[in-house]
Amino acid sequence: MAKLSVIVMDNRRLLNLIIVVAAVIMLIGVYTTWMSVDIPGLADESLTGWEIYDDTEEPEDFDETCAKYAPLVTLIFAILLILVPIATMFISNTVAKIGSALAIPFSIVSLFFLIKTYMYIKDKIDEAGIFGDYIEIGFGLYLSMVGCIVAIVGGFIAIFVLKNDSKI
Asked: Hey, which bits of 1-149 come out as E strands?
C-alpha cells in the first residue's frame, strides 16, 4: 500500500509541475513582445503585453477593454496558477483535485482575453491598410496563449489522474 501512495504523490507533483511551468510560460509571454510596428523611416516600436496594459488609454469598447486588460488578467491568473499547485502539492487528493481544477477556469478566462486581444490587433492591422504590412503580432502573445492551453490540458489531466488514483 505504501508504494501506491508514492505513485499518487508523484503523479500529483508531476501534474502540478506541468501547471506551474504553463503559468511561467504565461508570465514570460506577458513581458515579451505582443505587437511590433516597423515602418522604414517612420516608426520602429514594439510593445510587450505589460506595456499595452500600462501605456494605453481607457478603452472605449469591449474589444479594446479585452486588449488592454488581457496582460493584467494573464499575469494575475499565472501567479495564482503558480501558487495554488504549490500549496496543494502536499495536501490530500481531494484538495489537490480542487487546486488542479482551478487551472481550467483561470486559463480559459485568460485565453479568452488573449484571443480577443489577438482579434483586436488583427482588426487594427486590417484597418491600417498598406501600413498593416508593417505591423506584426509578437511572440509573447502566442507564448501566453500556449501557456494557457498547456495549463488547461494539465488541469484536465490532473483531474482525471487524481480521480483514478483516489480509487486505488
From this structure: 33-39, 43-48, 135-137
Question: What is the pTM (predicted TM-score) of this model?
Answer: 0.83
- β-partners of residue 36 are 46, 136
User: What pLDDT is stored for residue 78 in this prediction?
Assistant: 94
Angle between helices 2-30 and 93-127 (to 10 degrees): 20
Grid cell in block for residue 111: 485565453
| Contact indicator for 155, 101 with CB cutoff of 8 Å | yes
**Low-confidence spans in the chain with pLDDT less than 70:** 1-12, 56, 89-97, 162-168
The upper half-sphere exposure of residue 138, i.e. CA atoms within 13 Å in the direction of its Cβ, equals 22
**Spatial contact of 119 and 63, defined as CB atoms under 8 Å apart:** yes
The answer to whether 66 touches 120, Cβ cutoff 8 Å, is yes
